[in-house]
Amino acid sequence: MTDPIKRVPFDVESYQRRSRTGPCFICGIVSRDPSQPEEIIYEDDEHIAFLARFAALPPGVPYERQQYHALMAENGVVEHTPEEAAALAAKIRKALPS
Ligand SMILES: [Zn+2]
Which of 60 and 81 is assigned the larger pLDDT? Predict the structure, then answer.
């Protein structure tokens, strides 16, 4: 079976360097730091939900098949544009109960 989703290599070295020397990415997302362009799906005074920048799974993978594989970026990450991320985020926001 071939995977129709285009995956790109995950730059582990760059990720490790940024994680060890850069500021906290969660604080960056919360403060709307432009270097953290994650799409925010939901936010209130106590919670925030955002799309992972380095998605390892394409949309539509059944929940029971998502466990752990979603964290295995070493298998490559799903390439998406900022516009695709914004469209997915909008779709999820719309599906959330208000
Ligand atoms: Zn932080």
Answer: 81
Global pTM reads 0.71
Torsion 73-22-85-31 (CA) sign: positive
Compute the distance from residue 1 Cα to the ligand 1 centre, in Å: 41
Phi, psi torsion values for 22, nearest 5 degrees: -90, 175
Q: What span, in angstroms and rounded, lies between the C-alpha atoms of 93 and 41?
A: 6
Cβ neighbour number for residue 56 with a 10 Å cutoff: 20
Neighbours of ion ligand 1 (CB under 5 A): 24, 26-27
Q: What is the pLDDT of residues 10-21, one digit of tens each?
A: 888 998 898 899
